[in-house]
């Protein structure tokens, strides 16, 4: 038995980061950059009206779409329409 540890056979391969086909082709999408710009106050002022192509959108869920908190009082079993 070997005294080096590792628990496997042979030499361990270095961990490699998986690469997508788009990055292999040299394509870069500015999604991370648009998030950085919109979250930074100074950059957001500077580039406030600029449209960054293929930049995506800021993740946002409107308050009315979020589930209501359990601590609120209300009609829990009421129907939306009366028959």
Automatic annotation (TrEMBL):
<dbReference type="InterPro" id="IPR002119">
    <property type="entry name" value="Histone_H2A"/>
</dbReference>
<dbReference type="GO" id="GO:0046982">
    <property type="term" value="F:protein heterodimerization activity"/>
</dbReference>
<dbReference type="Pfam" id="PF16211">
    <property type="entry name" value="Histone_H2A_C"/>
</dbReference>
<keyword id="KW-0544">Nucleosome core</keyword>
<keyword id="KW-0539">Nucleus</keyword>
<dbReference type="GO" id="GO:0000786">
    <property type="term" value="C:nucleosome"/>
</dbReference>
<comment type="similarity">
    <text>Belongs to the histone H2A family.</text>
</comment>
<dbReference type="GO" id="GO:0003677">
    <property type="term" value="F:DNA binding"/>
</dbReference>
<dbReference type="GO" id="GO:0030527">
    <property type="term" value="F:structural constituent of chromatin"/>
</dbReference>
<comment type="subunit">
    <text>The nucleosome is a histone octamer containing two molecules each of H2A, H2B, H3 and H4 assembled in one H3-H4 heterotetramer and two H2A-H2B heterodimers. The octamer wraps approximately 147 bp of DNA.</text>
</comment>
<keyword id="KW-0238">DNA-binding</keyword>
<dbReference type="GO" id="GO:0005634">
    <property type="term" value="C:nucleus"/>
</dbReference>
<dbReference type="InterPro" id="IPR032458">
    <property type="entry name" value="Histone_H2A_CS"/>
</dbReference>
<dbReference type="InterPro" id="IPR032454">
    <property type="entry name" value="Histone_H2A_C"/>
</dbReference>
<keyword id="KW-0158">Chromosome</keyword>
<dbReference type="InterPro" id="IPR009072">
    <property type="entry name" value="Histone-fold"/>
</dbReference>
<protein>
    <recommendedName>
        <fullName>Histone H2A</fullName>
    </recommendedName>
</protein>
<feature type="domain" description="Histone H2A C-terminal">
    <location>
        <begin position="41"/>
        <end position="73"/>
    </location>
</feature>
<feature type="region of interest" description="Disordered">
    <location>
        <begin position="1"/>
        <end position="24"/>
    </location>
</feature>
């Amino acid at each position: 038995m070997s005294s080096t540890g590792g628990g496997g056979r042979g030499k361990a391969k270095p961990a490699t980061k998986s690469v997508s086909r788009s990055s292999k082709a040299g394509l870069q999408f500015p999604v991370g950059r648009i998030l950085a710009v919109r979250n930074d106050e100074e950059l957001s002022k500077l580039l406030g009206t600029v449209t960054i192509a293929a930049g995506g959108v800021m993740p946002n869920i409107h308050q009315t779409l979020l589930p209501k908190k359990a601590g609120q009082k209300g009609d829990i079993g009421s129907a939306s329409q009366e028959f």
